[in-house]
Amino acid sequence: MTRAEELQQIFEKIPWMNLSVFAEKIGMDRKNFTKYVTGKLTVTEKTYEKIIAGLAECKNELP
User: Fold this and answer.
1) Measuring CA to CA, which residue among 36, 27, 26 is closest to residue 57?
2) Is residue 36 a contact partner of residue 4, using CB atoms and an 8 Å limit?
3) How many whole angstroms separate alpha carbon 53 and alpha carbon 48?
4) What's the pTM?
5) SS3 per residue for the chain
6) 23 closest CA partner among 5, 13, 11
7) What is d(CA 7, CA 62) in angstroms, rounded to the nearest whole number?
8) What's the number of CA atoms in the CB half-sphere (13 Å) around residue 28?
9) CA dist 45 → 18, 36, 42, 60 (Å)
10) How many Å is the Cα radius of gyration of the chain?
11) How far apart are CA 23 and CA 28, in angstroms?
């Protein structure tokens, strides 16, 4: 499974998450972030790690 496919699967499981807000929270351009999630732009390892770290941070903020 590619990083892009993995991101697609992750965000399909949390459709309620606003991608624009999440992208802003992790300091990423909203348009590029959407392209990463939809597989239209190649995700580098560094970007992938940044997204995963942002998801972990969001998880820790949940009650």
Assistant:
1) 26
2) yes
3) 9
4) 0.86
5) CCHHHHHHHHHHCCCCCCHHHHHHHCCCCHHHHHHHHHCCCCCCHHHHHHHHHHHHHHHHHCC
6) 11
7) 20
8) 24
9) 23, 12, 10, 23
10) 11
11) 5
- Between CA 60 and CA 58, with CA 25 as vertex, the angle to 5 degrees is 15
Could you state, in chain order, the average pLDDT of each consecutive group of 10 residues for the chain (63 residues)?
90 92 95 92 94 92 78
Residue 36 in contact with residue 51, Cβ under 8 Å?
Answer: yes
51: its two tokens = 């997204």
Q: How far is CA 40 from CA 4, 17, 26, 54, 57, in A?
A: 9, 20, 20, 20, 25
> Which residue is associated with the tokens 């606003």?
18
